[in-house]
Specification:
Strand content: 25-35%
Helix content: 25-40%
Strand order of the largest sheet: 2-6-5-3-4-9-8
Distance between the termini: 53 Å
Shape: globular
Low-confidence stretches: none
Bound molecules: alpha-D-glucose-1-phosphate-6-vanadate, cobalt (II) ion
Largest sheet: 7 strands, mixed
Structural class: alpha/beta
Number of helices: 18
Radius of gyration: 23 Å
Number of strands: 27
């Protein structure tokens, strides 16, 4: 074994997006592409550790969602880590760690940080996507200052340091060695499951299953399967087969591991059947997202966050109440009303979990959520799909009420925020950029416009000042807000790998009991038409309707 110095070169486009660096597998498989990014990361970490020791003496966590290229990438990263001073790596067995589990492992072992290999909800396989992101010692996604520093370094880097050691056995638990670095292969589920036992009343959940409560969790052949099986079937006594598509596959079995009613179609079919289970849920590629569904009754992620907030005290881990809540800007304001009723703070952040980290670390927020099927809490620093599933199961166990009854009672008390996201996918980058540029330029003229009975009172580009460290993130999405609270939001996705994706978010509030049950798209049709009128979506993209509307 020896440490080699290898010449490298700058690659285009190594700037991380909303959640790490995501590219086609073929891009990641170019010689030195992954190496270049990881060496840049290690250079930045070596220069920035508070104790002046860089990665010397430090522990990193490593694992991924098991998609195509995961195993090879793990071996490469280990050899780079060994040559860059890392003392120890905690590696999920088989190279596997769900995103929330990686966060849990970093926190429980007080690691310096961790590398997560995932393109999350993006399709996998040789033709699909791969991704990598760095999480800091709090278990959460690196902040923008760090990801920008890594990007800058990728552009000037000239050499890599890498061990020429043989591959290690990543499927064998226990300790191995590369150069001076120890690799501890750990059970990917154990720490996470222990954390869930601390938060939830497992006895009560066992009772729920013992009484015959029927659940269908669709793991979409992604990394959540082993976690859901271990906790629901092995530890809580749910019947074998409760978790379906449970075996992680490198291409997710050709499914699109993005849990929404469109992509999780099979689950929706089962939940609409006459003999539907009592509760259904799905998770995404790296198991940080969740969709929850009652019989014939999908729950919007924004409503889910609001409901969890309203009932949190029923869960042992949140018995003492919540310090505050946070939602991303495009997420509906349903949770805001609950926070107000509870007398707790509600923060509005840009899209992406990294913006919740400081609020969670400072104890200012306990629950966080995004409209994109993500909810989580201070137990880790990522959103957490299985945690959300256990939360909803616990609510049903504690109240004896169904999903639909819980949600309808919530609307009756707080009113309903009709909500939908329209995605226009794979549009040419220049078309998308021109649309956003022209929209931004037109903002001063939009204020005061009238749509039916409502008037536009705010038209701006969202900027966020982090209340903890004062950092400013601007250009986070165009907001058009009406006097009745209705909102139309535009932003471009930062996780896609093909062209650009325009996300249009529509929301309006309804408190009249006679109008709580409208079809969602119908309830938002005038706002969608307004959005098209001001931004020229159909004219510019040539698309008559969104690729996906959820
Ligand atoms: C999307 C979602 C965002 C989420 C991000 C990562 O980002 O909108 O809410 O945090 O994906 O989720 P964008 O930039 O494409 O809108 V995951 O589960 O893909 O890590
Ligand atoms: Co994800």
């Amino acid at each position: 074994m020896a440490i080699q110095t290898i010449p490298t070169r700058a690659f285009e486009g190594q700037r991380p997006g909303t959640s790490g660096l995501r590219k086609k597998v073929s891009v990641f498989m170019q010689p030195l592409y992954l190496e270049n990014f990881v060496q840049a990361l290690f250079d930045v970490l070596n220069a920035s550790a508070d104790d002046g020791q860089g990665l010397q003496g430090k522990t990193l966590v490593l694992g991924g969602d098991g998609r195509y290229h995961n195993r090879a990438a793990v071996q490469t990263i280990l050899k780079l880590a060994a040559a860059n001073g890392v003392q120890q790596v905690l590696l999920g067995c088989g190279g596997i760690l769900s995103t929330p589990a990686a966060s849990a492992v970093i926190r429980r072992h007080q690691a310096f940080g961790g590398i997560i290999l995932s393109a999350s909800h993006n399709p996998g396989g040789p033709e699909g996507d791969f991704g990598i992101k760095y999480n800091a010692g709090n278990g959460g996604p690196a902040n923008e200052a760090l990801t920008e520093a890594v990007y800058a370094r990728t552009q000037v880097l000239q050499t890599l340091r890498c061990s020429d050691a043989a591959d290690i056995a990543i499927d064998r638990l226990g300790r191995q060695q590369i150069e001076q670095m120890a690799v501890e292969v750990i059970d990917p589920v154990a720490d996470y499951a222990a954390l869930m036992r601390e938060l939830f009343d497992f006895e009560a959940l066992r009772g729920l299953f013992a009484r015959g409560f029927r659940v269908r969790v669709d793991a979409m052949h992604a990394v959540g399967g082993p976690y859901a099986k271990a906790i629901l079937e092995d530890q809580l006594g749910a019947p074998v087969g409760t978790v379906v598509n449970a075996e992680p596959l490198q291409d997710f079995g050709g499914l699109h591991p993005d849990p929404n009613p469109v992509n999780a179609e099979d689950l929706m079919v089962h939940m609409a059947a006459a003999d539907a289970p009592d509760f259904g849920a799905a998770m995404d590629g790296d198991a940080d997202r969740n969709m929850v569904v009652g019989p014939n009754f999908p729950v919007s992620p924004s409503d889910s966050l609001a409901l969890m907030t309203a009932h949190a005290r029923l869960i042992p881990g949140y018995r003492d109440g919540l310090r505050g809540v946070a939602r991303s800007m495009p997420t509906s304001a349903a949770v805001d009303r609950v926070a107000q009723a509870l007398g707790i703070a509600c923060f509005e952040t840009p899209t992406g979990w990294k913006f919740f980290g400081n609020l969670l670390d400072a104890g200012r927020a306990t629950l966080c959520g995004e409209e994109s099927y993500g909810t989580g809490s201070s137990h880790v620093r990522e959103k957490d799909g299985l945690w959300a599933i256990l939360f909803w199961l616990s609510l049903q166990a504690a109240t004896g009420r169904s999903v639909e009854t819980l949600v309808r009672a919530h609307w009756a008390r707080f009113g309903r925020n009709y909500y939908s996201r329209h995605d226009y996918e794979a549009i040419p980058v220049d078309v998308a950029n021109a649309l956003m540029r022209d929209l931004r330029a037109s903002l001063p003229d939009l204020k005061g416009q009238v749509l039916g009975a409502r008037r536009l009172v705010l038209a701006d580009d969202f900027a966020y000042t982090d209340p903890i460290d004062g950092s400013v993130s601007s250009g986070q999405g165009v907001r058009l807000i009406f006097d009745d609270g209705a909102r139309v939001i535009f932003r471009l996705s930062g996780t896609g790998t093909e062209g650009a994706t325009l996300r249009l978010y529509l929301e309006r509030y309804e408190s009249d009991a006679a109008y709580l049950n409208l079809p969602v798209q119908q309830a938002l049709a005038d706002l969608a038409a307004f959005a098209d009128q001001v931004a020229g979506i159909r004219r510019r993209t040539g698309m008559q309707q969104p690729s996906v509307a959820t």
